[in-house]
Amino acid sequence: MPTTATETTAGNETVEGSGIIIQDPRTGEELWTVPEAGPDAVNDAVATARTAAPGWAATAPAERGAALRAAAKALNGAAQELAGLNASETGRPVEEALAGIAAAVSTLEQYAELGPVHRGHSLRGSRLASDYTVAEPRGVAVLLTPWNDPVAVACGLIGAALATGNTVIHKPSERCPRLGEALGEVLAPAFPAGVFLTVPGGAEVGAALSQADVDVIAHVGSSAAGARIAQAGALTGAHVIRENGGNDPLLVDRDVDPVWAAEQAAIGAFSNSGQICTSVERIYVHKDIAAAFCTALEAEAALRNSNGTVAPLVDLRMRDAVHSHVTDALAQGARAVEGGALPDGPGSFYPATVLLGCTGGMQVMTEETFGPVAPVQVVETFDDGLRLACSGRYGLAATVLSSNIAHIQQAVAALPVGTVKVNAVFGGAPGGAAQPRGESGAGFGYGPELLDEFSQVKVVHIAAPPAPGGNGAESVAGSGEQDLP
After folding, report:
1. One domain, residues 269 and 157
2. C-beta separation of 221 from 142 below 8 A
3. 186-234 pLDDT, tens digit each
């Protein structure tokens, strides 16, 4: 649980001194304190990255790719150490942390290959002229990354930013600051001095970096923080890329196997204790299979609670937020058929929870809960479920379970989200990207399209000069000047 000198812990104990104090999510014991960067350190990082930017931009793309491959190799070699820190600071099981690091290694290698082939486009113009676009780095990139999959998410942004020739200032989440520092120590030696920097800190440090003289800000985190960052970028002129909160719906049609559908719902709602940006946050199930589906979902949650596979939430603050959503639903008439109560014992554990009888006004159906909670609302028809799934201010992702191709096509067309998943709550081809909508963010995240986000485009027009002693009529006619206002 991160705490600074000006905050108090859940036990109302005032913390003396400076820095971010981390507590073990499993035991509540204090692990360590990580100093926060002050205003001078933020300013120095921006100045250093600005100084290094021209040289890195001028580095051949193949050399930048080679540096990324070296960083990927170093990351792979440090996987066990980083996974241990991930488990200590966020409670994520080591095997899951290792899987995230493996994904990060693959992502860095992917951008090492994609960077050198990232190119502009040729344009059709006069046969005596050349018209094309050139992709150039934006300059200094600030990356503000989360704690729930800290290495994989960070390396996606780091890889794309560095491959396109930007220098990077990375601020990892204050919920895993030691891991963020260690990641920086592993990656930075692969690049020239000043190209990749790590700045630890909380919201104040993130705000200072967002308001600094930088060229692009990429943020993965809450919608509230994303809105503040977007406002800061509007004032400074920095390009802003955001993947923020979601309230992702799962729509279960009448023609699917209810037991299989419940397995999918459990995977979507309970994986990583529900702490995934694209977790299943609300479920709409057709009345014809609702009874069998709910029985199977209750069993899935009970199994996870009995075998101890539900990891703790990242800290007590997160657990309090999750439980407040559950208690709100219970107060409004929902029933917790599994979980739903704060467990005894230390740490920030919360049980896999199934809520039945949910309605649209409950926080679990309108807000991002970000915990192992599966709220279920029964609907009369597929159209009713789709209408409810399309509601809300978020637009990150949605899942449809159906065998009816007409219903699937209808949902794909109607759902106002960046990603629609059909008959699988997770998965997708490597290199996939999406554009979040609404309060879930803006701009492409991940994939080849992320290279475009970290680039700015220059249009080039080259006309043939007039022949010596000629009047230049043919050259001028083919120069494209007729297109000028």
Report:
1. no
2. no
3. 999 999 999 999 999 999 999 999 999 999 999 999 999 999 999 999 9
Coil, strand or helix at 121: coil
Bridge-partner residues for 167, per DSSP? 140
> Are 304 and 334 in the same domain?
yes
What CATH number has the domain bearing residue 289?
A: 3.40.309.10
- Looking at residue 269, its amino acid is A
The H-assigned helical ranges of 118-237 are 150-163, 177-187, 203-210, 223-236
The model's pTM: 0.92
Name residue 197's amino acid: L
Q: Extract the tokens encoding 449.
A: 């399209």
pLDDT per residue as tens digits for the range 343-359: 999 999 999 999 999 99
pLDDT of residue 470: 63
The alpha-helical segments, DSSP class H, found in 332-472 are 363-366, 382-389, 405-414, 449-453
pLDDT in tens, 252-298: 999 999 999 999 999 999 999 999 999 999 999 999 999 999 999 99
Write down the residue that tokens 């009713």 correspond to.
Answer: 384
Helical ranges in 191-286 per DSSP H:
203-210, 223-236, 258-270
Judge whether 175 and 314 are in contact, CB under 8 Å.
yes
SS3 of residue 58 by DSSP: helix
User: What pLDDT band is residue 473 in, cutting at 50, 70 and 90?
Assistant: very low
Nearest to 284 by CA among 114, 415, 193, 174: 415
Q: How many CB atoms lie within 10 A of CB 106?
A: 16
